[in-house]
Design brief:
By secondary structure, the protein is mainly beta. It is elongated. Strands 1, 2, 3, 4, 5, 6, 7, 8, 9 and 10 form a ten-stranded antiparallel β-sheet that branches. The two termini are 40 Å apart. The protein has one domain: Porin, CATH 2.40.160.20. It has one helix at 2-18, and strands spanning 30-40, 48-61, 64-75, 81-94, 98-103, 105-109, 115-123, 126-129, 132-143, 153-163.
Length: 165
Protein backbone atom coordinates (compact mmCIF):
# COMPACT_ATOMS: atom_id res chain seq x y z
CA UNK A 1 0.00 0.00 0.00
CA UNK A 2 2.79 2.44 0.92
CA UNK A 3 4.54 1.64 -2.33
CA UNK A 4 1.40 2.45 -4.36
CA UNK A 5 0.95 5.80 -2.58
CA UNK A 6 4.60 6.73 -3.14
CA UNK A 7 4.37 5.83 -6.85
CA UNK A 8 1.12 7.82 -7.18
CA UNK A 9 2.64 10.90 -5.48
CA UNK A 10 5.75 10.67 -7.71
CA UNK A 11 3.60 10.43 -10.87
CA UNK A 12 1.47 13.40 -9.81
CA UNK A 13 4.56 15.50 -8.99
CA UNK A 14 6.14 14.61 -12.34
CA UNK A 15 2.96 15.52 -14.21
CA UNK A 16 2.69 18.83 -12.31
CA UNK A 17 6.29 19.94 -12.89
CA UNK A 18 6.64 18.54 -16.41
CA UNK A 19 3.75 20.54 -17.91
CA UNK A 20 4.19 24.22 -18.63
CA UNK A 21 1.90 26.41 -16.58
CA UNK A 22 -0.14 28.68 -18.85
CA UNK A 23 -0.38 32.19 -17.40
CA UNK A 24 -2.02 35.37 -18.59
CA UNK A 25 1.44 36.90 -19.21
CA UNK A 26 2.55 34.22 -21.68
CA UNK A 27 3.62 35.13 -25.23
CA UNK A 28 0.69 35.92 -27.53
CA UNK A 29 -1.78 36.87 -24.79
CA UNK A 30 -3.48 40.26 -24.42
CA UNK A 31 -4.10 42.36 -21.32
CA UNK A 32 -6.61 45.15 -20.71
CA UNK A 33 -6.19 47.20 -17.52
CA UNK A 34 -8.61 49.84 -16.25
CA UNK A 35 -6.84 51.98 -13.65
CA UNK A 36 -7.08 54.84 -11.20
CA UNK A 37 -4.20 56.98 -9.97
CA UNK A 38 -3.31 59.67 -7.46
CA UNK A 39 -0.03 61.53 -7.94
CA UNK A 40 1.66 64.22 -5.88
CA UNK A 41 4.89 66.19 -5.69
CA UNK A 42 6.61 68.02 -2.87
CA UNK A 43 7.92 71.55 -2.61
CA UNK A 44 6.82 74.93 -3.82
CA UNK A 45 4.45 74.71 -6.77
CA UNK A 46 3.64 71.08 -5.98
CA UNK A 47 1.46 69.09 -8.34
CA UNK A 48 -1.52 66.88 -7.55
CA UNK A 49 -3.46 64.84 -10.05
CA UNK A 50 -6.23 62.28 -10.20
CA UNK A 51 -6.70 59.98 -13.17
CA UNK A 52 -8.99 57.30 -14.56
CA UNK A 53 -7.64 55.36 -17.48
CA UNK A 54 -7.20 52.17 -19.44
CA UNK A 55 -4.22 50.45 -21.00
CA UNK A 56 -3.81 47.49 -23.30
CA UNK A 57 -0.76 45.30 -23.83
CA UNK A 58 0.19 42.40 -26.08
CA UNK A 59 2.78 39.97 -24.69
CA UNK A 60 5.43 39.69 -27.42
CA UNK A 61 7.44 37.23 -25.28
CA UNK A 62 6.61 35.62 -21.94
CA UNK A 63 6.07 38.31 -19.27
CA UNK A 64 6.84 41.29 -21.60
CA UNK A 65 3.85 43.35 -22.71
CA UNK A 66 4.01 46.19 -25.24
CA UNK A 67 1.05 48.51 -25.61
CA UNK A 68 -0.53 51.89 -25.06
CA UNK A 69 -2.48 53.77 -22.43
CA UNK A 70 -5.07 56.52 -22.29
CA UNK A 71 -6.40 58.39 -19.27
CA UNK A 72 -8.64 61.27 -18.32
CA UNK A 73 -6.86 63.44 -15.72
CA UNK A 74 -7.45 66.33 -13.40
CA UNK A 75 -4.20 68.15 -12.66
CA UNK A 76 -3.61 71.36 -10.69
CA UNK A 77 -0.38 71.95 -12.65
CA UNK A 78 -2.47 72.91 -15.67
CA UNK A 79 -4.61 75.52 -13.86
CA UNK A 80 -6.80 72.88 -12.19
CA UNK A 81 -8.15 71.64 -15.46
CA UNK A 82 -9.11 68.34 -17.02
CA UNK A 83 -7.21 66.82 -19.90
CA UNK A 84 -5.98 63.66 -21.52
CA UNK A 85 -2.81 61.65 -21.12
CA UNK A 86 -1.85 59.04 -23.68
CA UNK A 87 1.21 57.22 -24.98
CA UNK A 88 3.09 53.97 -25.50
CA UNK A 89 4.09 51.73 -22.59
CA UNK A 90 5.85 48.48 -21.76
CA UNK A 91 5.39 46.15 -18.81
CA UNK A 92 7.60 43.32 -17.65
CA UNK A 93 6.52 40.79 -15.05
CA UNK A 94 9.62 39.54 -13.21
CA UNK A 95 9.03 35.81 -12.63
CA UNK A 96 5.35 36.60 -13.30
CA UNK A 97 5.25 38.12 -9.80
CA UNK A 98 6.51 41.72 -9.78
CA UNK A 99 5.55 44.23 -12.48
CA UNK A 100 7.96 46.90 -13.69
CA UNK A 101 6.96 49.33 -16.39
CA UNK A 102 7.89 52.43 -18.33
CA UNK A 103 6.42 54.55 -21.08
CA UNK A 104 6.14 57.98 -22.61
CA UNK A 105 3.21 60.11 -21.45
CA UNK A 106 1.87 62.91 -23.64
CA UNK A 107 -0.24 65.41 -21.68
CA UNK A 108 -2.90 67.35 -23.61
CA UNK A 109 -4.69 69.88 -21.39
CA UNK A 110 -6.88 72.85 -22.30
CA UNK A 111 -4.92 76.08 -22.78
CA UNK A 112 -1.56 74.33 -22.49
CA UNK A 113 1.14 73.10 -24.83
CA UNK A 114 1.68 69.38 -25.07
CA UNK A 115 3.84 68.10 -22.20
CA UNK A 116 6.03 64.97 -22.19
CA UNK A 117 6.86 62.77 -19.21
CA UNK A 118 8.59 59.46 -18.53
CA UNK A 119 6.58 57.28 -16.10
CA UNK A 120 8.38 54.48 -14.23
CA UNK A 121 6.42 52.03 -12.09
CA UNK A 122 6.75 48.95 -9.93
CA UNK A 123 3.84 46.88 -8.65
CA UNK A 124 2.67 43.53 -7.45
CA UNK A 125 -0.15 41.67 -9.22
CA UNK A 126 -2.51 39.84 -6.87
CA UNK A 127 -4.17 37.22 -9.09
CA UNK A 128 -7.78 36.52 -8.13
CA UNK A 129 -8.11 34.03 -11.01
CA UNK A 130 -5.51 33.07 -13.65
CA UNK A 131 -6.81 35.92 -15.86
CA UNK A 132 -7.83 38.60 -13.34
CA UNK A 133 -5.56 40.50 -10.96
CA UNK A 134 -5.54 43.61 -8.80
CA UNK A 135 -2.24 45.46 -9.25
CA UNK A 136 -1.35 48.12 -6.68
CA UNK A 137 1.78 49.96 -7.82
CA UNK A 138 3.98 52.93 -7.09
CA UNK A 139 5.16 55.20 -9.84
CA UNK A 140 7.52 58.05 -10.43
CA UNK A 141 6.85 60.35 -13.38
CA UNK A 142 9.76 62.42 -14.60
CA UNK A 143 8.71 65.61 -16.39
CA UNK A 144 10.62 66.00 -19.68
CA UNK A 145 9.26 69.21 -21.21
CA UNK A 146 7.17 72.26 -20.59
CA UNK A 147 7.47 76.00 -20.56
CA UNK A 148 7.14 76.12 -16.77
CA UNK A 149 9.34 73.09 -16.02
CA UNK A 150 6.80 70.29 -15.62
CA UNK A 151 7.23 68.75 -12.14
CA UNK A 152 8.28 65.20 -11.44
CA UNK A 153 5.72 63.39 -9.30
CA UNK A 154 5.27 60.26 -7.18
CA UNK A 155 2.05 58.30 -7.38
CA UNK A 156 -0.02 55.40 -6.15
CA UNK A 157 -2.01 53.51 -8.78
CA UNK A 158 -4.50 50.67 -8.69
CA UNK A 159 -4.82 48.66 -11.90
CA UNK A 160 -7.09 45.77 -12.66
CA UNK A 161 -5.57 43.15 -14.95
CA UNK A 162 -7.88 41.32 -17.37
CA UNK A 163 -5.94 38.94 -19.59
CA UNK A 164 -6.69 36.14 -22.00
CA UNK A 165 -5.28 32.70 -21.61
Amino acid sequence: MKRSIIILVCLMATAFFATAQETATNKGNWQVSPSSAFQFSFGEGGTNSLALGVSGHHFVVDDLGVGAKFSFDWNNYFNSSWGFVFGPSVRYYVLSKVRVGAGLDIYAFKNSDLQLALPLEVGYPIFVTPNVAIEPNLNFTLGLSGARGFNSVFGLNFDFFFGDN
